[in-house]
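Lecture notes, part 5. Sequence design as translation. It can be helpful to think of inverse folding as translation between two languages: the language of shapes and the language of residues. The source text, in structure tokens, appears below.
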């Protein structure tokens, strides 16, 4: 399996159609793993992401662009797949393991992350499939 490229479906304009893309993929480092996505749910929030924001009612909308989302964007935060590469510090997974990917990535170092609430990390807002 060629791990030098990531193949994905993404949109390049808010409200735009999905198009296939291939992008360079860095090798897994540290505690990182590379997962070949075998399943990915697209839910109602993904439709709002593609549109560029949530309708808050009363003519008000949020903006994913103002919140830091950058195009092109690959939707899908409900991810399942197979581990195909391990970083050198990974000890609890093996190649071929089936996994569900937790999409909310905190910094891993602040008090919020250390107590297990990395989805609320004040330092970073890295979210797979939404930003």
């Amino acid at each position: 399996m060629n791990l030098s490229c990531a193949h994905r479906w993404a949109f390049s304009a808010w409200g735009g159609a999905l198009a296939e893309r291939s992008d360079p993929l860095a090798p897994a480092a540290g505690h990182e793993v590379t997962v070949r996505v075998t399943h990915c749910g697209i839910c109602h929030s993904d439709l709002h992401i593609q549109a560029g924001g949530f309708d808050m009612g009363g003519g008000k909308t949020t903006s994913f662009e103002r919140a830091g989302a950058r195009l092109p964007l690959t939707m899908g935060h409900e991810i399942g797949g197979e581990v195909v590469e391990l970083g050198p510090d990974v000890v609890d997974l093996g190649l071929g393991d089936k996994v569900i990917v937790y999409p909310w990535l905190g910094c891993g170092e602040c008090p919020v992350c250390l107590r297990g609430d990395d989805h609320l990390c004040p330092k970073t807002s890295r979210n797979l499939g939404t930003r």
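The translated text above is only one of many valid answers, since several sequences can fold into similar shapes. Strands lie at 5-10, 19-24, 33-41, 55-57, 60-61, 78-86, 98-101, 104-105, 126-127.
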